[in-house]
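Q: Got a minute? One more chain.
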Amino acid sequence: MQASDTLNNLDKLSPREKEVAICIMEGLSTGLIAERLCLKSNTISTIKNRIFIKLEVDSIVGLYKVLMG
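A: Always. Here it is, folded:
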């Protein structure tokens, strides 16, 4: 995967989804992401699910592979 592929994948995400994806990549838990972004944990879970659907992954490991190459 090239850097342009990573950028194309990020372009599929909304600004909020990008924020959550970055937090996931930093290794933060759902609860910590919720605290950082001043949202509820359920909201973070919903956003995480949308990220997985948009990037066609089914796990955080899959997300790493798509975003990090």
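A: The radius of gyration is 11 Å.
Q: Perfect, thanks.
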